[in-house]
Design goal:
single chain; mainly alpha; two-stranded antiparallel ribbon; globular
Length: 215
Protein backbone atom coordinates (compact mmCIF):
# COMPACT_ATOMS: atom_id res chain seq x y z
CA UNK A 1 0.00 0.00 0.00
CA UNK A 2 1.47 3.34 -1.06
CA UNK A 3 0.41 6.07 1.33
CA UNK A 4 1.94 9.42 2.13
CA UNK A 5 0.95 13.00 2.72
CA UNK A 6 1.63 15.99 0.52
CA UNK A 7 0.37 19.53 0.35
CA UNK A 8 -1.43 21.48 -2.34
CA UNK A 9 -0.40 25.11 -2.57
CA UNK A 10 -3.05 27.77 -2.20
CA UNK A 11 -3.01 31.49 -2.60
CA UNK A 12 -3.69 31.84 1.14
CA UNK A 13 -0.42 30.04 1.96
CA UNK A 14 -2.38 27.52 3.99
CA UNK A 15 -2.11 24.37 1.87
CA UNK A 16 -4.58 21.62 2.74
CA UNK A 17 -3.32 18.16 3.62
CA UNK A 18 -3.84 15.65 0.84
CA UNK A 19 -3.71 11.94 1.42
CA UNK A 20 -1.96 10.00 -1.31
CA UNK A 21 -3.84 6.74 -1.57
CA UNK A 22 -3.14 3.38 -3.06
CA UNK A 23 -2.03 3.10 -6.67
CA UNK A 24 -4.69 0.95 -8.32
CA UNK A 25 -4.64 1.35 -12.09
CA UNK A 26 -7.11 -1.44 -12.79
CA UNK A 27 -9.67 0.09 -10.42
CA UNK A 28 -9.31 3.52 -12.00
CA UNK A 29 -9.83 2.15 -15.49
CA UNK A 30 -12.66 -0.14 -14.35
CA UNK A 31 -14.43 2.70 -12.54
CA UNK A 32 -13.95 4.89 -15.58
CA UNK A 33 -15.46 2.21 -17.81
CA UNK A 34 -18.46 1.82 -15.50
CA UNK A 35 -19.02 5.58 -15.50
CA UNK A 36 -18.92 5.70 -19.32
CA UNK A 37 -21.28 2.74 -19.68
CA UNK A 38 -23.83 4.30 -17.30
CA UNK A 39 -23.86 7.44 -19.46
CA UNK A 40 -22.95 5.85 -22.78
CA UNK A 41 -25.10 7.92 -25.13
CA UNK A 42 -24.16 11.17 -23.41
CA UNK A 43 -20.45 10.42 -23.60
CA UNK A 44 -20.64 9.44 -27.26
CA UNK A 45 -22.25 12.78 -28.05
CA UNK A 46 -19.86 14.64 -25.75
CA UNK A 47 -16.82 13.00 -27.39
CA UNK A 48 -18.21 13.81 -30.83
CA UNK A 49 -18.75 17.47 -29.88
CA UNK A 50 -15.27 17.63 -28.33
CA UNK A 51 -13.65 16.09 -31.42
CA UNK A 52 -15.58 18.32 -33.86
CA UNK A 53 -14.76 21.49 -31.94
CA UNK A 54 -11.09 20.58 -31.68
CA UNK A 55 -10.96 19.55 -35.33
CA UNK A 56 -12.50 22.84 -36.41
CA UNK A 57 -10.24 24.81 -34.08
CA UNK A 58 -7.06 23.14 -35.31
CA UNK A 59 -7.92 24.08 -38.89
CA UNK A 60 -6.34 27.28 -37.64
CA UNK A 61 -3.41 26.09 -35.58
CA UNK A 62 -3.27 28.99 -33.15
CA UNK A 63 -7.00 28.79 -32.35
CA UNK A 64 -6.63 25.07 -31.73
CA UNK A 65 -3.91 25.66 -29.17
CA UNK A 66 -6.06 28.22 -27.41
CA UNK A 67 -9.23 26.09 -27.28
CA UNK A 68 -7.86 22.61 -26.52
CA UNK A 69 -7.15 23.29 -22.83
CA UNK A 70 -10.52 24.84 -21.95
CA UNK A 71 -12.42 22.09 -23.81
CA UNK A 72 -10.47 19.43 -21.92
CA UNK A 73 -11.15 21.25 -18.65
CA UNK A 74 -14.85 21.25 -19.47
CA UNK A 75 -14.72 17.51 -20.18
CA UNK A 76 -13.23 16.92 -16.73
CA UNK A 77 -15.84 19.21 -15.18
CA UNK A 78 -18.59 16.95 -16.54
CA UNK A 79 -16.84 13.80 -15.30
CA UNK A 80 -16.33 15.26 -11.83
CA UNK A 81 -20.03 16.18 -11.70
CA UNK A 82 -20.95 12.58 -12.46
CA UNK A 83 -18.54 11.24 -9.83
CA UNK A 84 -20.27 13.53 -7.34
CA UNK A 85 -23.59 11.96 -8.34
CA UNK A 86 -24.92 14.95 -10.27
CA UNK A 87 -26.62 15.06 -13.65
CA UNK A 88 -24.96 14.95 -17.05
CA UNK A 89 -25.19 18.14 -19.12
CA UNK A 90 -23.21 18.27 -22.36
CA UNK A 91 -23.35 22.06 -22.29
CA UNK A 92 -21.18 21.99 -19.17
CA UNK A 93 -18.17 21.52 -21.43
CA UNK A 94 -18.33 25.32 -21.73
CA UNK A 95 -17.41 25.52 -18.03
CA UNK A 96 -13.81 25.07 -19.12
CA UNK A 97 -13.86 28.59 -20.51
CA UNK A 98 -14.27 29.93 -16.98
CA UNK A 99 -10.61 28.95 -16.50
CA UNK A 100 -9.71 29.68 -20.10
CA UNK A 101 -6.31 31.35 -19.67
CA UNK A 102 -4.94 28.87 -17.11
CA UNK A 103 -6.21 25.84 -19.04
CA UNK A 104 -4.92 27.11 -22.38
CA UNK A 105 -1.45 27.95 -21.03
CA UNK A 106 -1.17 24.62 -19.19
CA UNK A 107 -2.24 22.67 -22.27
CA UNK A 108 0.23 24.52 -24.52
CA UNK A 109 3.13 23.92 -22.15
CA UNK A 110 2.27 20.29 -21.45
CA UNK A 111 1.77 19.54 -25.15
CA UNK A 112 5.10 21.17 -25.97
CA UNK A 113 7.00 19.35 -23.21
CA UNK A 114 5.39 16.01 -24.13
CA UNK A 115 6.08 16.45 -27.85
CA UNK A 116 9.74 17.14 -27.13
CA UNK A 117 9.80 14.07 -24.90
CA UNK A 118 8.31 11.84 -27.60
CA UNK A 119 10.99 12.97 -30.01
CA UNK A 120 13.55 11.44 -27.67
CA UNK A 121 12.69 7.74 -27.89
CA UNK A 122 9.03 8.03 -26.73
CA UNK A 123 9.60 7.09 -23.07
CA UNK A 124 10.34 10.66 -21.92
CA UNK A 125 7.10 11.76 -23.56
CA UNK A 126 5.13 9.19 -21.56
CA UNK A 127 6.83 10.26 -18.34
CA UNK A 128 6.16 13.95 -18.99
CA UNK A 129 2.53 13.21 -19.83
CA UNK A 130 2.24 11.30 -16.55
CA UNK A 131 3.82 14.10 -14.53
CA UNK A 132 1.26 16.62 -15.70
CA UNK A 133 -1.84 14.43 -16.02
CA UNK A 134 -3.57 16.20 -13.11
CA UNK A 135 -2.83 19.78 -14.17
CA UNK A 136 -6.03 20.43 -16.13
CA UNK A 137 -8.21 18.68 -13.49
CA UNK A 138 -6.59 20.84 -10.79
CA UNK A 139 -7.32 23.98 -12.80
CA UNK A 140 -11.01 23.20 -13.27
CA UNK A 141 -11.62 21.63 -9.86
CA UNK A 142 -9.45 23.74 -7.53
CA UNK A 143 -9.17 26.89 -9.70
CA UNK A 144 -5.36 26.90 -9.62
CA UNK A 145 -3.33 28.97 -12.05
CA UNK A 146 -1.51 27.07 -14.79
CA UNK A 147 1.93 26.86 -13.21
CA UNK A 148 0.64 26.07 -9.74
CA UNK A 149 -1.45 23.24 -11.20
CA UNK A 150 1.45 21.87 -13.22
CA UNK A 151 3.80 21.95 -10.26
CA UNK A 152 1.23 20.34 -7.96
CA UNK A 153 0.61 17.55 -10.48
CA UNK A 154 4.34 17.02 -10.93
CA UNK A 155 4.92 16.76 -7.18
CA UNK A 156 2.04 14.33 -6.64
CA UNK A 157 2.98 12.08 -9.56
CA UNK A 158 6.70 12.16 -8.73
CA UNK A 159 6.02 10.29 -5.50
CA UNK A 160 5.03 7.22 -7.55
CA UNK A 161 6.49 8.12 -10.93
CA UNK A 162 7.15 4.60 -12.20
CA UNK A 163 3.65 3.29 -11.46
CA UNK A 164 1.91 6.37 -12.83
CA UNK A 165 4.04 6.32 -15.97
CA UNK A 166 2.85 2.75 -16.54
CA UNK A 167 -0.70 4.02 -16.00
CA UNK A 168 -0.16 6.71 -18.63
CA UNK A 169 1.24 4.10 -21.02
CA UNK A 170 -1.92 2.03 -20.56
CA UNK A 171 -4.02 5.09 -21.35
CA UNK A 172 -2.07 5.71 -24.54
CA UNK A 173 -2.64 2.08 -25.51
CA UNK A 174 -6.39 2.54 -24.94
CA UNK A 175 -6.36 5.60 -27.21
CA UNK A 176 -4.37 3.73 -29.85
CA UNK A 177 -6.80 0.81 -29.80
CA UNK A 178 -9.66 3.28 -30.16
CA UNK A 179 -7.95 4.81 -33.18
CA UNK A 180 -7.51 1.38 -34.76
CA UNK A 181 -11.27 0.82 -34.60
CA UNK A 182 -11.71 3.06 -37.63
CA UNK A 183 -11.37 6.07 -35.37
CA UNK A 184 -14.92 5.57 -34.05
CA UNK A 185 -13.49 3.76 -31.04
CA UNK A 186 -11.93 7.07 -29.99
CA UNK A 187 -15.41 8.29 -29.05
CA UNK A 188 -15.32 5.67 -26.29
CA UNK A 189 -11.58 5.57 -25.63
CA UNK A 190 -11.29 9.32 -25.08
CA UNK A 191 -13.85 9.62 -22.25
CA UNK A 192 -12.54 6.39 -20.74
CA UNK A 193 -9.05 7.88 -20.52
CA UNK A 194 -10.35 11.11 -18.99
CA UNK A 195 -12.55 9.20 -16.53
CA UNK A 196 -9.66 6.94 -15.46
CA UNK A 197 -7.51 10.02 -14.80
CA UNK A 198 -10.40 11.56 -12.85
CA UNK A 199 -10.65 8.50 -10.60
CA UNK A 200 -6.89 8.56 -10.07
CA UNK A 201 -7.28 12.21 -9.11
CA UNK A 202 -9.95 11.29 -6.54
CA UNK A 203 -7.61 8.79 -4.88
CA UNK A 204 -4.34 10.69 -5.11
CA UNK A 205 -5.38 14.32 -4.71
CA UNK A 206 -8.97 14.29 -3.53
CA UNK A 207 -12.26 15.58 -4.88
CA UNK A 208 -14.46 17.72 -2.65
CA UNK A 209 -17.43 15.75 -1.27
CA UNK A 210 -16.09 12.46 -2.66
CA UNK A 211 -14.23 9.95 -0.52
CA UNK A 212 -11.22 8.12 -2.03
CA UNK A 213 -11.65 4.41 -2.58
CA UNK A 214 -10.85 2.22 0.40
CA UNK A 215 -7.33 0.80 0.29
Amino acid sequence: MLESTTQLPTSQNQPPQVQIGEINMSRWISNGWDLIMKNFGGFLLLSFVYAVLLGAAFSTWVIGLILAGPLTAGFFYIIFRLIRGKDFYIGDIAKGFEVWIAAALADILISTFSALGFIFLIVPGIIISALYMFAIPLIIEKKMDFWQAMETSRKVVSRNLFELSIFMLLLYIILFLGFLLLGVGLLVALPLVFAAIAYAYVDLIGLDNVAPAAN
